[in-house]
Automatic annotation (TrEMBL):
<keyword id="KW-0969">Cilium</keyword>
<keyword id="KW-0966">Cell projection</keyword>
<dbReference type="InterPro" id="IPR009384">
    <property type="entry name" value="SwrD-like"/>
</dbReference>
<protein>
    <submittedName>
        <fullName>Flagellar protein</fullName>
    </submittedName>
</protein>
<dbReference type="Pfam" id="PF06289">
    <property type="entry name" value="FlbD"/>
</dbReference>
<keyword id="KW-0282">Flagellum</keyword>
Length: 73
């Protein structure tokens, strides 16, 4: 899940796994696999960075849990 800002400045959290593609029109438009489109203030690069940070966070938590599980057995 990543937090983005809509054009009115309100924050919105979206599931990054549902992003089909992102384009600049010149606004940044996120199209989800559901067909829904969200126009945001962030640039494409900022959104990609948010996705990378989110995935990195998920992976690090997963690795910690795997290591804890191995040590308990």
């Amino acid at each position: 899940m990543i937090t983005v800002s809509k054009l009115n400045g309100k924050k919105c959290v979206i599931n990054s796994d549902l992003i089909e593609h992102i384009e600049t029109t010149p606004d940044t438009v996120i199209t989800l696999t559901t067909g829904k489109k969200i126009i945001v203030l962030e640039s494409i690069d900022q959104i990609i960075d948010k996705i990378i940070q989110y995935k990195r966070k998920i992976y690090s938590h997963s690795t910690i849990l795997q290591n804890l599980t191995r040590n308990e057995v």
